[in-house]
């Protein structure tokens, strides 16, 4: 919006999907928006990448509540600076400062991983998948409702009041942290007080040799599969709005908003579906993750033909895909189960760091490849995402086969 104002144009001019709408000013604004989006992402996620691994691993020493307060404080500082920028109409470069402040606290990804590690501390292993599903579904639904409501709020009153409400919510979250349950304290060697990426990786690989052979490579397979899932999910997310608004689909903003509402409303049903799959269908965690990955790949494949589908069919595809959007929860649960109680913070620090890296890589690659491949095929990036989503399927399948073989050998040894 601010970039458009600098060029004396309006969002109406930029959003019309007509035959002769392509102008020089549109291209200039679009290019500048892309550049500033990249700069803002880098200013936030580069410091967040380092901060998340330090803060999350430090939580093994000082406790989850302390480090969650640090991340929330960074987000609170971000909202305060953003409110000042909006109120005083400061130039766009000031947004880099506010984003950098959020990144210093690890931002949303670090907070999510600390919450996941906290749940691992206070829940039994067999219940973690469902607990993680409730955690992420709550955040997803809350984010969806906030996004939809803030859109109308911004339209009616501008940006300041929504930003002010974000600041109030962050303050409320900080006040709620001391009320959380205190997990059982674990004694950690003082040398892990300020743990680096190298130390985290080393400790994660060395601590776990006591359970069974092959635990470490299984852990890395799950982390890699989770990172590839995030790569596809984030990549599709960053370009799908452009895909829907541009030709040949030409969705209206109302349809895009409705699609977002469908996404987050269906996400709330994930815990119910998990109960059905675990309690009624008796599906293993491996199989549940595989079904979710195949749903993601199938969703991308079908969306590559969205230009020949009717609008209701596009919404149906979205519903089916996000109904199976529980794979992240069970990936977190499996990663947590493969880490000892001493390693939860260190392992999720690595997951948080790689997740942020995947966010940056996905944003850069998808936004670069999408315009470059339009001349080849309008839905090429969907096909690309469908192909990449099959790689974690192979990784999970390998782990599943190895686990079944190990269990069978264990039974045979026990019988002899």
UniProtKB/TrEMBL annotation:
Cellular localization per UniProt: Apical cell membrane; Basolateral cell membrane; Cytoplasm; Endosome membrane
InterPro entries: MFS (IPR011701), MFS_trans_sf (IPR036259)
One Pfam entry name: MFS_1
Transmembrane segments: 38-59, 66-86, 92-111, 132-153, 159-181, 219-245, 251-275, 287-306, 312-330, 346-370, 382-402
Keywords: Cell membrane, Cytoplasm, Disulfide bond, Endosome, Folate-binding, Glycoprotein, Membrane, Symport, Transmembrane, Transmembrane helix, Transport
A biological process from GO: transmembrane transport
GO molecular function term, any single one: folic acid binding
Topology with respect to the bilayer: Multi-pass membrane protein
Catalysed reactions listed for this entry: (6S)-5-methyl-5,6,7,8-tetrahydrofolate(in) + H(+)(in) = (6S)-5-methyl-5,6,7,8-tetrahydrofolate(out) + H(+)(out); pemetrexed(in) + H(+)(in) = pemetrexed(out) + H(+)(out); methotrexate(in) + H(+)(in) = methotrexate(out) + H(+)(out); folate(in) + H(+)(in) = folate(out) + H(+)(out)
Protein's name in the database: Proton-coupled folate transporter
């Amino acid at each position: 919006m601010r970039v458009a104002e600098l060029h004396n144009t309006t969002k109406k001019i930029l959003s019309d999907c007509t035959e002769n709408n392509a102008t020089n000013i549109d291209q200039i604004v679009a290019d500048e928006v892309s550049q500033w989006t990249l700069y803002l992402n880098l200013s936030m996620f580069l410091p967040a990448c380092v901060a998340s691994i330090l803060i999350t691993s430090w939580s093994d020493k000082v406790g989850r509540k302390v480090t969650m307060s640090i991340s929330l404080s960074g987000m609170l500082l971000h909202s305060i600076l953003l409110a000042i920028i909006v109120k005083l109409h400061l130039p766009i470069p000031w947004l880099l400062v506010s984003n950098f402040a959020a990144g210093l606290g690890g931002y949303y990804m670090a907070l999510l991983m600390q919450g996941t590690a906290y749940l691992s501390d206070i829940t039994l292993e067999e219940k973690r998948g469902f607990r993680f599903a409730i955690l992420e579904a709550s955040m997803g639904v809350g984010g969806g409702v906030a996004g939809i409501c803030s859109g109308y709020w911004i339209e009616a009153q501008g940006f300041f009041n929504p930003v002010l409400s974000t600041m109030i919510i962050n303050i409320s979250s900080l006040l709620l942290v001391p009320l959380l349950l205190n997990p059982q304290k674990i004694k950690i060697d003082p040398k892990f007080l300020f743990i680096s990426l190298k130390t985290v990786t080393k400790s994660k690989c060395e601590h776990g040799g006591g359970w069974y052979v092959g635990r470490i490579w299984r852990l890395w397979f799950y982390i890699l599969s989770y990172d590839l899932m995030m790569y596809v999910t984030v990549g599709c997310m960053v370009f799908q709005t452009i895909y829907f608004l541009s030709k040949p689909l030409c969705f209206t903003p109302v349809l895009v908003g409705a699609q977002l509402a469908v996404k987050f409303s269906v996400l709330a049903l994930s815990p119910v579906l998990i109960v059905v799959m675990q309690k009624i269908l008796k599906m293993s965690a491996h199989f549940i993750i595989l079904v979710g990955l195949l749903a993601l790949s199938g969703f991308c494949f079908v969306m590559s033909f969205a230009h020949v589908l009717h609008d209701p069919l596009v919404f149906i595809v979205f519903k089916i895909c996000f109904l199976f959007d529980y794979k992240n929860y069970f990936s977190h649960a499996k990663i947590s189960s493969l880490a000892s109680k001493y390693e939860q913070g260190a392992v999720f620090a690595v997951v948080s760091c790689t997740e942020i890296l995947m966010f940056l890589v996905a944003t850069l690659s998808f936004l670069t490849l999408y315009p470059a491949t339009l001349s080849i095929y309008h839905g090429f990036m969907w096909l690309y995402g469908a192909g990449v989503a099959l790689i974690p399927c192979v990784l999970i399948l390998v782990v599943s086969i190895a686990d079944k073989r190990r269990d069978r050998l264990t039974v045979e040894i026990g019988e002899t």
